């Protein structure tokens, strides 16, 4: 048996084999590989803009000027790919946060590039929440930076690490997420800021991939909602989820931006984003404050569903504090069975298994969006009741 066949056989035996799924979707429904129409509870388009904003999107495309109507930038930004719309979006985001801004091609590019660049600043230690995104750990691996994990949202464990290492390193960088994509819970940002302020050489790196667009009256994320964004040294915003576009950025001070332009390999060596997509991201950011009704509707759906799931799933753990909810059934096999049960009842909510989550914490994850209606929630709850969890 060759090494590839053996590896795939092992994945299958552990119920962790992944397969590409050729689905098409419109935000509310997804068409499966068998042609069936399924309620889509796997989309990260949290504000539902791809369906609720169809007229806005059509208008945007119709009015796109010749300066942005390019489907490829055809070059790195450091060569000939730096169209004016890039700096326009950066200036817009900078004005919203009172800092500077640097664009990346995706959240993955942002984390790998930023971690790699920051790791070159001398004696640097990253203190990373164990549930941080894989791209953070990939950035660590590529840069060979020093790091320590701490238990998820455990401020006591983090405090002990800070006290132990703060005198040994020039910089200690705490890496957390505003809203965690698997457990759906928030980072204790106020406590993190308070800890940071106890030391002169501690910095705070916050990834708001799943909270930008959704949190706060203006949709500018969890830190902004808590009026703590000024205390965040590296604020990562991703555009491929609630912003319904593509790309990402870091919000930081100008000196940090200029440093990363010279050192972030994922920026330097990547063809820049298509100008049309960058322009659409700018269009959405300029409109975020007007999307409060979508955020309120999403919050109401999430609150109702969480309450009902806790009542219905007596023998399972229900996680989530916002629009990302999970039913933890422990084993990979049980998670696959629950996902298949839901699929047979017209619902697409994939199983999330090890290694995406720790062993024996496999789950079905439910991602809500503002295009869903109470009838869709009722449909899901009926299927959950039948599953006898």
Mean pLDDT: 94
Percent range of helical residues: 40-55%
Structural class label: alpha/beta
Order of strands side by side in the largest beta sheet?
4-10-9-8-7-5-6
Order of helices and strands: HEEEHHHEHEHEHEHEHEEHHHHEEHEEEH
Alpha carbon gap, first and last residue: 40 Å
CATH-defined fold name of the largest domain: Aspartate Aminotransferase, domain 2
Rg computed from alpha carbons, rounded to a whole number of angstroms: 21 Å
What's the number of helices?
A: 15
For the largest beta-sheet, the strand count, sense and barrel status come to:
7 strands, mixed
Can you tell me the CATH superfamily of the largest domain?
A: Type I PLP-dependent aspartate aminotransferase-like (Major domain)
Q: What percent strand? A: 15-25%
What does this structure look like?
By secondary structure, the protein is α/β, with parallel strands linked by helices. The chain folds into two domains: 10-53 and 292-387, Aspartate Aminotransferase, domain 1 (Alpha-Beta Complex), CATH 3.90.1150; 66-273, 3-Layer(aba) Sandwich (Aspartate Aminotransferase, domain 2), CATH 3.40.640. 41% of the residues lie in helices and 17% in strands. The chain contains 15 helices and 15 strands. A seven-stranded mixed sheet has the order 4-10-9-8-7-5-6, with helices on both faces. A four-stranded mixed sheet has the order 1-2-3-13. Helix 4 runs parallel beside helix 12 (275-287) and helix 13 runs parallel beside helix 15. The model has no long low-confidence stretch (mean pLDDT 94).
